[in-house]
């Protein structure tokens, strides 16, 4: 069983050339400044985010709460609790370096290769949207995608490429420079690639870092999740034992 707090809508790209002042790096630099500044963003090495909302399962809204704990460079834990007509179900996913662990209601689960790939891609997305790594690490290649519409507002797109990772597409509001959409590919349950989009809104300053409080996720254009962030905590360090077992 796999759940990811990640999503996407159909991408409409503009074919026009990108002005010199809107190179991919310049777009990300302005975005980083809008979100809190590169230095401040780069200092965030570990955090824990709590969310609540609804996941769409078999065309029905299923309430959930979630807690995502991240510690760079390679630790990630996602705890998702669903409230179903049959009761509560909790899924725990852990990425700890090369180790991947998943449990369902406390019982260890066999982790399929596609689930491992999805978890690693989710972690890669989580890292990229911090923005500072895109500007400070040489393994990222940035390509401007031109201007598109996200909702009714103009936005500038940037494609993010890195060796061994799938491409990501980030879209920044043209006026505010805030990240308003991400797009990437995951493996679907039938083995075919599935496009994931997440839309971000209601930005607030949380500890000097401007973050979105509301998220909407889509899979191949179909809504799969609505969520809101209810709490964010930052840490200098989280004990490694947090990522030892689900």
What does the model show?
This protein is α+β, with helices and mostly antiparallel strands. It has a single domain (20-243), classed as Lipoprotein localisation LolA/LolB/LppX (outer membrane lipoprotein receptor (LolB), chain A), CATH 2.50.20. Helices cover 16% and strands 52% of the residues. The protein contains four helices and 13 strands. The chain has a 13-stranded antiparallel sheet with strand order 6-5-4-3-2-1-13-12-11-10-9-8-7. The two termini are 14 Å apart.
Q: Name the CATH superfamily assignment.
A: Lipoprotein localisation LolA/LolB/LppX
Give a quick account of the main beta sheet: strands, pairing sense, barrel closure.
Answer: 13 strands, antiparallel
Query: What is the helix tally?
Result: 4
Roughly what fraction of the amino acids lie in strands?
A: over 45%
CATH level 3 topology: outer membrane lipoprotein receptor (LolB), chain A
Low-confidence stretches: 1-20
Structural class: alpha+beta
Question: In which order are the strands of the major sheet placed?
Answer: 6-5-4-3-2-1-13-12-11-10-9-8-7
Mean pLDDT: 88
Distance between the termini: 14 Å
The CATH architecture term is: Clam
The top-level CATH class is Mainly Beta
Domain tally:
1
The gyration radius over C-alpha positions equals: 18 Å
Please count the beta strands (DSSP E, at least 2 residues each).
13
- Bin the helical content: 10-25%
The helix/strand series, from N terminus to C terminus, equals: HHEEEEEEHHEEEEEEE
Per the principal axes of the C-alpha atoms, what is the gross shape? globular
């Amino acid at each position: 069983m796999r759940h990811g707090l990640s999503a996407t809508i159909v991408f409409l790209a503009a074919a026009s050339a990108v002005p010199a002042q809107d190179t991919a790096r310049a777009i990300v630099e302005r975005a980083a400044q809008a979100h809190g500044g590169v230095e401040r963003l780069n200092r965030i090495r570990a955090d824990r985010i709590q969310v609540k909302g609804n996941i769409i399962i078999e065309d029905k809204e299923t309430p959930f709460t979630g807690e995502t704990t991240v510690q760079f460079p390679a630790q990630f834990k996602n705890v998702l609790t669903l409230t179903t007509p049959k009761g509560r179900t909790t899924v725990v996913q852990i990425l700890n370096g090369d180790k991947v662990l998943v449990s369902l209601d406390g019982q260890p689960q066999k982790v399929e290769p596609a689930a491992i790939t999805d978890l690693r891609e989710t972690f890669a997305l989580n890292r990229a949207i911090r923005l500072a790594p895109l500007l400070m690490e040489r393994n990222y290649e940035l390509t401007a995608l031109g201007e598109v519409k996200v909702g009714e507002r103009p936005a500038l797109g940037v494609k993010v490429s890195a060796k061994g990772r799938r491409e990501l597409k980030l879209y920044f509001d043209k006026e505010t420079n805030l990240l308003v959409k991400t797009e990437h590919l995951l493996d679907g349950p039938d083995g075919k690639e599935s496009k994931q989009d997440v839309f971000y809104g209601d930005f607030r300053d949380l500890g000097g870092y401007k973050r979105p409080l509301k998220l909407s996720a889509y899979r191949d254009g179909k809504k799969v999740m609505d969520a809101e962030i209810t709490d964010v905590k930052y840490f200098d360090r989280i004990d490694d034992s947090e990522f030892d077992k689900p």
